[in-house]
Specification:
By secondary structure, the protein is an alpha/beta fold. The chain folds into 3 domains: 84 residues, SRP54, nucleotide-binding domain (Four Helix Bundle (Hemerythrin (Met), subunit A)), CATH 1.20.120.140; 196 residues, P-loop containing nucleotide triphosphate hydrolases (Rossmann fold, 3-Layer(aba) Sandwich); 138 residues, Signal recognition particle, SRP54 subunit, M-domain (434 Repressor (Amino-terminal Domain), Orthogonal Bundle), CATH 1.10.260. Helix content is 57%, strand content 9%. It contains 20 helices and 8 strands. It has an 8-stranded mixed sheet with strand order 3-2-4-1-5-6-7-8, sandwiched between helices. Strand 2, helix 6 and strand 3 form a beta-alpha-beta unit. It is flat and about 75 Å long. It starts with a helix and ends in a 14-residue tail after the last helix.
Length: 443
């Protein structure tokens, strides 16, 4: 997500780097390019105009400061204004003081509402909360079946009643079950339509009056750009939306909806969908997202992702073993699998400060390469993994044949592994801090 926007903004700022000072004319030229980039990214026109007016006013007032380069000053101002445009600060779910907290999930058909309800339930369950889903979409064929299937996969209870199409009755009955079972959160999946209509909104209003939700979350398709903003305005006018979940942002390189929706509606983006799997839902942090857009990285999100993905006990065992006996290829393979839990390698690298699109292309962060490395290591015997030095020409040829990879890749892996062994010995010998879990696999 935001690939095109990031590349073009980086190119715009690159023209200003290296200048000792920035005149007002330089700033206007640079911001003219930024304006073009934002409009091409499908950002709301009025928002873009107001954004650039604020940036220009601040930039002109600090353009003569000598301690920081002018381009850096401008990037910092753009970062602050992007953060404000995206919502300024993270807004989580508002939890009721008297459980269960009721969340009404609304949106049009095709926005990924049912899947997103399951994703959010999974995330909340992972935070230690007892969650229940209520299937109140009685119109779309197989909507109830889909939610029940997802519930079984995630081991999350789903309340459904196929004997009636009265969604108010279904929701009330589901809430009674939730209260009896002492659930902490209840997510109600409602019906969508191809477009906003009176019948749909009347039903949602009746549902809102009946269950008195603590949150009304609009699930909007991020790939629809300004249409997502208009949809948000429509739902908010009818229901009073409390927050937005933008889906399919992994397929949107422009990001216009994410950059416009808060500015137009003043409704916070609470989560973003970044993939099809049930774990592909992220909390939305405006400041971190602004950092990603400007290619400044997002180390905090990377650390949080690592903490949730890595097994702390396994990491401690691996570290203890490596410090005592050294690292072998079995440890290396285990570390690679830990890294895979973080998601696509390209996404992980983008969270590191200073990594831009050009560097990613040069790095060739192809997920297939990890599978190729795994195939090579698994084609070795246990003795070969423990002592790679015994891998002579004939053994390497056998491994290449067994893994279906050329001998050059086997040799390359072994060369990199030896380099990593030296690095780990050096780190251990310096008596420094603990080695982070997955450190071995990051290279």
């Amino acid at each position: 997500m935001f690939n095109e926007l990031s590349e073009k903004l980086e190119a715009a700022f690159a023209k200003l780097r290296g200048r000792g000072t920035l005149s007002e004319a330089d700033i206007k030229d640079g911001l003219r390019e930024v304006r073009r980039v934002l409009l091409e990214a499908d950002v709301n026109f009025q928002l873009t105009r107001e954004f650039l007016e604020r940036v220009e006013k601040k930039a002109v007032s600090v353009s003569q400061i000598k301690t920081v380069s002018p381009a850096q000053q401008l990037v910092k101002i753009v970062y602050d204004e992007l953060t404000a445009m995206l919502g300024e600060r993270r807004e989580g779910l508002k939890l009721s003081s008297v459980p269960p907290t009721v969340v009404l999930m609304v949106g049009l058909q095709g926005s990924g509402k049912t899947t997103t309800a399951a994703k959010l339930a999974r995330k909340l369950k992972g935070e230690g909360r007892q969650v229940r889903l209520i299937a109140a979409d009685v119109y779309r064929p197989a909507a109830i079946d889909q939610l029940e299937t997802l519930g079984r996969e995630l081991d999350i209870p789903v309340y459904a009643d196929r004997s009636t199409t009265d969604v108010v009755k279904i929701a009330r009955a589901g809430l009674e079950v939730a209260r009896h079972e002492r659930d902490r959160l209840v997510l109600i999946d409602t019906a969508g339509r191809l477009q906003i209509d009176d019948e749909m909104m009347d039903e949602l209003r009746r549902l809102k009056d009946a269950v008195r939700p603590d949150e009304i979350l609009l699930v909007a398709d991020g790939m629809t750009g300004q249409d997502a903003v208009k949809i948000a305005q429509g739902f908010d006018a009818a229901l009073g939306v409390t927050g937005v979940i933008l889906t399919k942002l992994d397929g949107d390189a422009r990001g216009g909806a994410a950059l416009s929706i808060y500015g137009v509606t003043k409704k916070p983006i609470k989560y973003i969908g970044v993939g099809e799997k049930t774990d592909a839902l992220e909390e939305f942090h405006p400041d971190r997202m602004a950092g990603r857009i400007l290619q400044q990285g997002d180390v905090l999100s990377l650390v949080e992702k690592a903490q949730s993905a890595f097994d702390a006990d396994e990491a401690k065992k691996m570290e203890k073993k490596v410090r005592k006996e050294g690292m072998d290829l079995t440890d290396f393979l285990a570390a690679m699998k830990q890294i895979q839990k973080l998601g696509p390698l390209e996404g992980v690298l983008k969270m590191l400060p200073g990594v831009n699109t050009k560097m990613l292309k040069q790095a060739n962060a192809d997920p297939k390469r990890i599978r190729h490395v795994e195939a090579i290591v698994l084609s070795m015997t246990l003795a070969e993994r423990k002592k790679p030095d015994i891998l002579n020409g004939s053994r390497r040829a056998r491994i290449a044949k067994g893994s279906g990879r050329p001998i050059s890749e086997v040799n390359q892996l072994l060369d990199q592994f030896r380099g990593m062994q030296k690095m780990m010995k050096k780190m251990s010998g310096q008596g420094g801090g603990r080695m982070p879990p997955g450190m071995f696999g990051m290279r």
